[in-house]
Each structure stands twice: as C-alpha cells, then as structure tokens.
Amino acid sequence: MSTAQSAGGSTTEPGVATDRRSIVDREKAEHGGIKVGSAFFGFLTASGMAVLLTAILTAAGAAVGLASDATVGNATAQAKQSASTIGIVGGIILLVILFLAYFCGGYVAGRMARFDGAKQGLAVWLWALAVAILVAVLGAVAGSEFNILAQLNSFPRIPVNEGDLTTGGIIAAVAALAATLIGAIAGGLAGMRFHRKVDRTGLGR
To answer: How far is residue 82's CA from residue 164's CA, in Å, rounded to a whole number?
Structure first.
C-alpha cells in the first residue's frame, strides 16, 4: 500500500484527511464523551474555590452587610429575610461566588478532557448534585453532624426540613442550581477552547 509523504518527512495513509477539522473530528470520535474522572477533579476544584471565595467574602462581609458566618448555603436564608437592598446585594454576591467556583471547576474538567467541554461542565455539576443529595440523605438518616456541606460551604444544602421548603427558599435553591450549572458549562467550554487554539497552532487553520 502506497503512502503519501509530507514536507516534514512523515507519511500518511492514502484517503485519510489531514486537514485540521478532519483530524480533530477523528480524535473527538475516539476520545470524546463525558470523562467522569475529569469531572470529579473539576468538582473538587469547584469545592475548593467556593471555600476560598466564601472565606474572602466572609472577611469582607461587613462591607456588604453580611453576617460573619456567611456561607454559600446561607443563600437560602438570605432569600427568606426581608428583601432589603443589603440582602439582595448579599444574595447576588453569593450567586456570583457559586458561578465563579463552578466556572473554575468546569474549566479544569474541560481542559483535562479536551473534548465536549459543555458535557464535562454538566458532569461537574452532576457530581456536585450527587454529593449534595448523598450528604442530605446521610444528614436526614444519621443526624446533622453528617451534613458536612455546612462546613464545606461549596454547594447549597438541600432543604430536608418542612420549614426550609418555603417559596423564598425554593427560589434561592433554584437560583443557586442555575448559577452553578451555567458556570460549570461555561467553564467547560472555555477549557476545551484552549485545546482548539493548540490545534490551530499545530495543524493550521
């Protein structure tokens, strides 16, 4: 079987496309799809960033009128308070923290997996949701001492008490879920985009 020789001396099989788009498509078909491991490390990154950003927010809490024990999970409590300007600003800041934390997590997953950035971001979000559900179940069955998300501050706790299932609490939970989902998917796409830049550099446009 004859082969074609490129200017650099490498050989390619006849009939095999060598343009960048075709090469990337073949690589994606072979190595694409959700990567659970990459998503898990993305989730860990998101959790760590949430803790770090929440600590920074807590240190500067007096400037925005937040309590000294402000946590990501307290977004629900913020929504149940009076809709004052301070409360609204605090809630928005907490949502921004969630978005940024999960953007970072999605970016790590997308960068590690290389392909299907949106799917990697979604997988990061699903990891977080699965952990939140698991911890909520453990907390309901074994007691509040197992609700480690209260100390981790990385994802809103799922309300399991009747008193938490208020309209404000549900709205806050939905907003938090939406912020994390959008952030994770956007981060996954950004992480994947880096590899497309590398492909354009190495394979041409």
So the answer is: 16
pLDDT digits (tens, 9 = 90+) for 120-173: 999 999 999 998 888 878 777 776 665 555 555 555 444 444 455 567 667 778
Instruction: Say how far apart CA 202 and CA 196 lie, in whole Å.
Output: 10
Type and span of the H or E element at 11: strand 11-12
Q: Do residues 94 and 72 touch, judged by C-beta distance below 8 A?
A: yes
Name 178's Cβ contacts closer than 8 Å, sequence gap at least 6: none
Half-sphere exposure of 189 (CA within 13 A, CB side): 6
Instruction: Confirm if 121 and 189 have CB atoms less than 8 A apart.
Output: yes
Q: For residue 64, what are its two tokens?
A: 């925005």
Helices 117-142 and 167-203 sit at what angle, rounded to 10 degrees?
150
Give the sign of the dihedral formed by CA 46, CA 49, CA 55, CA 59: negative
Q: How many Cβ atoms sit within 10 Å of the Cβ of residue 124?
A: 35
CA distance 154 to 157: 9
Contacts of 33 by beta carbon, 8 Å cutoff, 6+ apart: 115, 116, 119
Domain boundaries, the chain: 35-203
